[in-house]
Amino acid sequence: MDSSDRTSIAVHDHPPTVHDYHAHTNYSDGRYMFHMVRAAEAAGLDGIGFTDHCTVTERDHRHEDRARYAFNLDVTYERRRRGIESLREEADVAVYDGVEMDYDPRDEAAIRDFLAEADFDYAIGSVHELDDANVQVPSNYAGRSDAELDRLVDEYFDRLVQLIESELFDVAAHPDLIERTPPLAGRATEDQYRRVAEALADSRTIPEINAGRALTDLELVHPTQPFLDVLGEYEIPVTVGSDSHTPEEVEARTPFLREFFDQRGIDPIAPSPLQ
């Protein structure tokens, strides 16, 4: 989909989407695919996309993550694909074969090669690191000065723009992930949101509405409302992902997302290869 095909974040006159394009299984840090499909059926979804984590890099510290959390779909995707094909034969929902890739500009060549080889239904890209540390762990950024934290937030958005401009991905996941991390949260600026929106306006990549922290104490939906307002101003379409890792999360987050879209009059779309 090129920029001329874009639609705005628009008011709809029909029920909001009943698809979930971002969920995880036992092929990374989630539960068995069979149980996730059954939860999707129970939640009334028409389709669920399995986007297990994958890290492809030569950097040593990420090899530990691959081993500890099974972020190695580059090794297991063919076996998972056989499982998906088997589930499709009996499931009452569409089951999509996707991936969530950790993005670092140093890994672009390896990511490009793997995505070309694996030929997923669609690919999600995520920025999960700053200073070679997990951006979701507050202790990684504790004790830093305000100037240093602001620099890190700016670096996060630089990395997000690079992800979008790489044209490697159909979806940019949780595009303000820093809001989950107290030392970094609340530091993003409208100018940074606009940089991202301008990059998205020229790209096939679209952001997602991500409910991964919506029903927690954080009560956080990505992107936050100020960021979402900027995306609407630029008429950037969005897709939808519960970011569920368990069947219970699928069943709880699906009605939440329906209400979220309905209240805001947003009509999310599928990742471009599925349209």
Query: SSE order, as H and E?
Result: EHEHHEHEEEHEHEEHEH
Helix content: 25-40%
CATH class: Alpha Beta
Provide the domain count: 1
Estimated share of beta-strand residues: 15-25%
- Structure classification: alpha/beta
Mean pLDDT: 93
Number of helices: 8
What is the second-level CATH architecture? Alpha-Beta Barrel
Please report the total strand number as a whole number: 10
Radius of gyration from CA coordinates: 18 Å
Q: Quick one: CATH superfamily?
A: Metal-dependent hydrolases
SSE diagram, text form:
Blueprint (H helix, E strand, L loop, with lengths): L18 E5 L9 H10 L4 E8 L5 H10 L3 H16 L5 E9 L5 H11 L3 E5 L2 E2 L2 E2 L11 H20 L5 E2 L17 H12 L4 E8 L6 E3 L2 H9 L5 E3 L5 H18 L11
Parallel strand pairs: 1-2, 2-3, 3-4, 4-7, 7-8, 8-10
Antiparallel strand pairs: 5-6, 8-9
Helix pairs in contact: 1-8, 5-6, 6-7
Question: Could you give a short description of this structure?
Answer:
This protein has helices at residues 33-42, 60-69, 73-88, 108-118, 146-165, 190-201, 225-233, 247-264, and strands at 19-23, 47-54, 94-102, 122-126, 129-130, 133-134, 171-172, 206-213, 220-222, 239-241.
General description of the model:
This protein has 275 residues and is an alpha/beta fold. It has a single domain, classed as Alpha-Beta Barrel (TIM Barrel). The protein contains 8 helices and 10 strands. It has helices at residues 33-42, 60-69, 73-88, 108-118, 146-165, 190-201, 225-233, 247-264; strands spanning 19-23, 47-54, 94-102, 122-126, 129-130, 133-134, 171-172, 206-213, 220-222, 239-241. A hairpin with a 6-residue loop joins strand 8 (206-213) and strand 9. The longest helix has 20 residues, at 146-165. The radius of gyration is 18 Å and the shape is globular. Mean pLDDT is 93; it is low at 1-16.
